[in-house]
Specification:
The chain is of the alpha/beta class and 421 residues long. It contains 17 helices and 15 strands. Keywords: Cytoplasm, Hydrolase, NAD, One-carbon metabolism.
């Protein structure tokens, strides 16, 4: 494994990155409150952390919080196109963090950076997509003995880790931060909804009003995206495989169609399903001239890019995050951000205010795992409800919002059964 302490694009970008981090931190009061306590109590003192996350200004705020708690953090990118080079430079230069991330890095570099993040034998692993966990279990199994636990930020990663747990392969406990209410109900819905629309608009500068916008998948991310697209005046079509989610989308007022029918009428397509091959060759073949295709799921496998290239072999880049694929009959399909996370590869990701909740959950999850030691089984665990509620209370306090408190009689009523009607 590598012993280098950083691999970033350009150290001279550090001042610009610091400005960006400071701007993000102004909208993250919950994480600031946790950082203040961490600085005082030092609950992570001496703990080696390997973090594979999107290297953005919001992530920098999380890393700075962990370091305030005493952690020795090594950071790499969880997506080759999501790194903000100025933020990476600032973390390395101003905060002394071992950062291994470059915007646009190729596949070998990406995996070299994963290995570099693991090179100090971490005691805790923070993942966004489970790439570090996968690497530990497939290529560096000896590291598993030193790892006390981990956290996972995204739906795709939780799915991977649960599969590992079912197979009996998972070597250490992992907190599914993605499943925490303060994370998925806000980050996935409001964050993904806004940032995905932002990425699509930055990449295309297209008008969404009046367009047919196809949302593939109606989980929390899909719900948020559909709502924001409808708010922009688009006619939203939802595709689903889950009957309950399809029914919910119908009751929410959207047209629900199989992807084979939606492919022929859509103007803009965005996958948020967390599965592979959501849009494949048959669907690309049905698309009208000028169709725009994007992905907001964690992995680019949601789009069958090989099938697209075979169907439309003529390709050219006409905008920074927009590639034109031309079919032999002249019909064009426009792919955004090379099929990777459009909200991060073509924009800046989620707003800091919503990442404040997600990364507060992350920070508390790290503290919880370390405090639990080896008591947790090697499985995927929920973040304790009390910690989730603590994050929500801190956010409400920062917003100046007050809520009611149950009386003793109300608590007794909810806890009992003898009162009847």
């Amino acid at each position: 494994m590598t012993t280098t302490t950083r691999d970033i694009s350009d150290e001279t970008l550090a001042p610009r990155g610091r400005d960006k981090i400071e701007w993000a931190e102004r909208a993250m009061p919950v994480l600031a409150a946790i950082r203040e306590r961490f600085s005082r109590d030092r609950p992570l003192a001496g703990v080696r952390v390997a973090a594979c996350l999107h290297v953005t200004a919001e992530t920098a705020a999380l890393v700075r919080t962990l370091r305030a708690g005493g952690a020795d953090v090594r950071l790499c990118a969880s997506n080759p196109l999501s790194t903000q080079d100025d933020v990476a430079a600032s973390l390395a230069v101003h905060d002394g963090v071992a950062v291994f991330a470059r915007a646009g890095e190729d596949r070998p570099t990406y995996f070299a950076h994963l290995a570099a993040a693991l090179s100090h034998r971490p005691q805790l692993v923070m993942d966004d997509g489970a790439d570090l966990a996968t690497l530990v279990h497939t290529r560096h199994p000896a590291l598993g003995d030193a790892i006390v636990g981990g956290t996972e930020e995204t739906t795709s990663g939780v799915t991977r880790l649960r599969a590992m747990a079912r197979d009996g392969a998972l070597r250490y406990p992992v907190i599914a931060v993605n499943d925490a209410v303060a994370k998925h109900m806000f980050d996935n819905r409001y964050g993904t909804g806004q940032s995905t629309i932002d990425g699509i608009l930055r990449a295309t500068n297209r008008l969404l009003a009046g367009a047919c916008f196809v949302v593939c998948g109606y989980g929390w991310c899909g719900r948020g995206l559909a709502a924001r697209a409808a708010g922009m005046g688009a006619r939203v079509v939802v595709t689903e495989v889950d009957p309950l989610r399809a029914l919910e989308a119908t009751m929410d007022g959207y047209q629900v169609l199989p992807i084979a029918r939606a492919a022929a009428i859509g103007d803009v397509f965005c996958t948020v399903a967390g599965n592979r091959g959501v849009i494949g060759g048959p669907e690309f073949a049905l698309m009208k001239d000028g169709a725009v295709v994007a992905n907001a799921g964690h992995f680019d496998v949601e789009l069958d890019l090989a099938a697209l290239a075979a169907l439309a072999p003529q390709r050219r880049r006409i905008r920074p995050a927009l590639d034109e694929f031309v079919r032999p009959d002249g019909r064009r399909i426009y792919l955004l951000a090379e099929g990777r996370l459009v909200n991060l590869a073509a924009a800046e990701g989620h707003p800091a205010a919503v990442m404040d909740l997600s990364f507060a959950d992350q920070a508390l999850a790290v503290e919880f795992v370390l405090a639990s030691g080896r008591e947790l089984a090697a499985d995927v665990h929920a973040l304790p409800r009390a910690l989730d509620e603590e994050v929500a209370r801190l956010k409400l306090r920062a917003l100046g919002v007050e809520i009611d408190v149950l009386s003793r009689e109300q608590r007794d009523y909810l806890a009992g059964w003898r009162a009847g009607t």
